[in-house]
């Protein structure tokens, strides 16, 4: 084909979409939320509170109780009592009915949950509406089905519950992570003390209200809000049988040390730095879409985000050109607008971290590219960013940034790209794009990552296990495998 | 180009990925001013079409009046882009549309099957062009394509393009008969390489016709061709688009795939007739705040 003169597409403002904001008027937000312990909403000991703000407007949303060691102790005691007296002895079929009820209620209140998730966390309403909330409800549906079928999940063995599960979840998918944690725990007959992240407690407390409305017996699910100290109190509580944590690798290591030598079981779902690999025989336009979804979904606040792009050198220029054009069509801004593709960065702290890495990348000599899009004046924002000509030894390639920042490296052979993809302390996910089936199977056996997507990226389903290799953690959540963490087998 | 040269153009398309992208376009919320502007653009991109055995001069003349005056009860309406008729009615349409700016398009090349000799197809084209057609809508030989005779398809398009002279050539792939998106993509590339000014999904006689995945695949082919050559090629989805909402989703797809330059009837058309009244009804609703009955809009 003829070598090109410079051709440029114009993604301008000839036909701009009018604002289409989702109304938040129908969602009820209290001024202050207590802790949900033993079926009651109570203040923290000493009445300490903290505020949650809207990351896109910096407006105050509500105050939340900050749970102390004493509050956590109360919650664990309530969970133990419920485990011994109600939830443990209950027939599995009856437990399943409660979980189904939670799932149905979540579907009924889906719109309210979606609005609140975007308000508190900054993610676009399109994602909270189409991904977070429906997938969360699906997790409850899926695990409700397992509740009375555990003997089929573990044939030839008897599965009994572990006891009280202490669960700590991150701020990137607040409601969905709560569902990932609570649903399998309940289905296996455990009781729960859950702590949402301090920047995104709103939907967890809404979930507490929903669980309360569902008539779940008091103490089966307890939700306590707070920061790191509250989390530490849960991890270190002697009567917690199992710790489930999703969050940063740094905190994961602290937890690992804290529970060493105790009886506590643990699953850790930590950071990632996934390779997204594009071969020259891939369906390129669809691959570009996969790159976009891989890194800009939820502003890149995704542990399995495809943050390292590897493109075969003979199609690199074309793929980058397509990628830049696609980035020009991303709408960055008000999370509540139905047309927004990329929302607000979850917190000032996270924005500072991302900006630190942008600076590092530039200093390391990678070529930074950002589309020409306008950002709101108030709030936490970061333009979708590429680092072209990145090298394996760059810090921006080695370290998790957890933002809308993609590094781009070229490769020449299959062996080279496998080597580079695996050359990381993380191992959560990876993506492979090729039209050739045999190449996919070759890659999936050699990539050291818990999840490998072929010709797609960032797909989540309750039936599919999720978890990492190496410093991305251990244990699996979701699917049949997700049950294992919450049972003892005899 | 030889068969082997053409085969080298083949590019894989992932249907699942295409469908996901299409679903994403459909989540765009088009409201208020954006909706009115979009609807007017859609109206201005329509090829008002009658392709029936029972077409007459009277029918064509009435349709041409509608093309220029879609709905005089509303002010500030654009005309449609073109009327599309059989070669025998081109002269009538040219006469009826004089000075209006509305183009006359004619199907040719043994439309809709395309099963005839090169000689007859060329003659068919010449008759339409000589009668004053501004645009020719040809069909490709799907049988030859599916049997692997790609150079036949290429040569035929190139020959018709030659016969068109100044008239712009739209090449109908009849995607409903090509069965896969890989084929849609490959046929699009062959047509553009052979000189097509527009590529068009369907004759309107076969279903499925202009589905969004098919149109997206063709828009992406146009984009790659533009990247490589700098030549713009137009796109015309035809058949199956009868509602405003679907038309607006198509427009979103054009805007986000090819950008602003293609958002005009010089580069994008809708091959549809029933779409016109639905657009008019929506525009009337935007202007007056309520829906009117279908009887308030003219059937042609």
Looking at this protein, list some descriptive labels.
heterodimer; A: 490 residues; alpha/beta; 20 strands; globular; B: 300 residues; eight-stranded parallel beta sheet; 8 strands; 10% strand
Structure description:
The complex is a heterodimer of chains A (490) and B (300). With 490 residues, chain A is of the alpha/beta class. Chain A has helices at 69-87, 92-108, 110-121, 125-146, 150-153, 174-187, 202-213, 228-236, 249-259, 284-296, 316-328, 348-364, 395-398, 414-422, 437-446, and strands at 32-33, 35-37, 40-42, 49-53, 60-65, 159-161, 164-168, 191-195, 221-223, 242-246, 265-269, 275-278, 308-312, 367-369, 385-388, 405-411, 429-433, 451-454, 473-474, 487-489. Chain A has a seven-stranded mixed beta sheet, sandwiched between helices. Chain A has a six-stranded mixed beta sheet with strand order 9-8-7-10-11-19, sandwiched between helices. In chain A, strands 1-5-4 form a three-stranded mixed beta sheet, with no helix packed on it. In chain A, α10 (284-296) links the parallel β12 and β13 (308-312). Chain A is globular. With 300 residues, chain B is α/β, with parallel strands linked by helices. Helix content of chain B is 47%, strand content 10%. Chain B has helices at residues 3-7, 15-25, 32-44, 57-68, 90-96, 118-130, 142-146, 150-164, 181-193, 212-229, 244-257, 274-288, and strands at residues 46-49, 82-85, 103-107, 135-139, 168-172, 198-200, 234-236, 270-271. Chain B has an eight-stranded parallel beta sheet. In chain B, α3 (32-44) packs antiparallel against α12 (274-288), α6 (118-130) runs parallel beside α8 and α9 packs parallel to α10 (212-229). The longest helix of chain B has 18 residues, at 212-229. Chain A binds chain B through residues 1-2, 4-5, 7, 9-18, 20, 126, 130, 281-287, 289-290, 318, 321, 325, 329, 338-339, 435, 455-456, and chain B through 11-14, 16-18, 20-21, 27-35, 37-38, 41, 220, 223, 226-230, 251, 255-256, 258-261, 263.
